[in-house]
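agent> step 3/5: call structure_predict on target 'Extracellular solute-binding protein' (Modicisalibacter zincidurans).
agent> reason: downstream docking stage needs a structural representation; sequence fetched in step 2, passing through unchanged.
tool.input:
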Amino acid sequence: MSVSVATLLGSAQSAMADTTVRVMRVEISQVEKDYYAEIAREFENSHPGVNIELDYLSNEAYKSKLPTLLQSDQRPDIFYSWGGEALKEKVEAGFVKDLTAAMQDGWQARFPDSAIDAFTINGKIYGAPLYVTEVGFWANTALTEKAGVDVGAIDTWQDFLDAVTTLKEADITPIVVGAKDGWPMQFYWGSLATRLAGQQGFKAAKAGEGEGFAAPPFVQAGEKLEQLAELEPFQPGFMATTYERASGMFGDGEAAFHLMGDWDYLPSKQRSMSGEGVPDEDLRFISFPSVEGGQGNEATYGGLNGWAVTRDAPDMAVTFLKSLLSLDNQREAAKRGIFVPIVKGAEKALTTPYGRKVAKDIDQASYHQTFLDQDLGVSVGATVNDISNDLAQGVTSPEEAAERVEEAWQFR
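tool.output (status=ok):
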């Protein structure tokens, strides 16, 4: 079910440890794994008798197996988490420790209020934020320039559609996508819905006002995705391609664009055949295009990711989590280009133009919409993933897609 990448003290020492803290996370780049391993080693050195185990699961396996793990004797003590309905479901099932009291010693003050809000349920705090992410288009400018596409001039959805057409005319694959996993294609529908509905539109839909998720902005999101799909912009076999494979394909220069989170910078390079990926001088990260008449054109779409602690975890798990999310450790992550940190002041250590752009985008955004497959809960999120793939294949209509999301929300 998982691959342990670091049992840092070795089997003999581990057996003698007074306390073992198991940490489980979605699969990440080796650079980030090394970062966590160093933090764990330093913590163990300063806390004799404590053993930190770091386990990783691929994205889809993590989402599907975590609920089962949380009900078993093999549950982790700390697990990677998104906020929203997905976390709320685990809290209501009694799997998650209340961190409200632990946050009162100055720990909470490290984070922006919006970040704490993402992990607050019914007035109590059930998680600690790790980083913020933005979904946008990674662009290979060596390919776009070859086709005569000016990436810097892409501002609207129509601009992007025009760029896709130009790339196809130049016999260059416009976009690579890992649709087999569902959520990569959902980034299109989710981003378009965010642009069109805006914060108030999502708030109204969740409250059941009007037509809910069958309201015009959500139908229009499907229409926009349908527009793109009709241009046949994706690589052959896109429905059988995983996210990890698509990430590597972009790194190998097999397409001009990849709609993905900012976190894909290092993984895309490492998953490429060369291990180097698209050279930095040919790499750009651009914001998702605006949509005419949209109510959320100043918003961002992405993640506000963090950690939760299981209900019966040892107190040392909370102690380690506080150390993991220290200002120094967040600065180090920023310096290495691993992610855009959430602890106040750590963003100043960002060194890549991509990281700095994301930090600026998030800071200037009117609001940040978190991933729909997490924000709306597991069952509704699965429906959003499914309708996104169906729209991309032309096997459902925008109206039917929106109605399916609304029905899933009503019967969640």
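agent> step 4/5: record observation. Residues 1-16 have pLDDT under 50 and may be disordered.
agent> proceeding.
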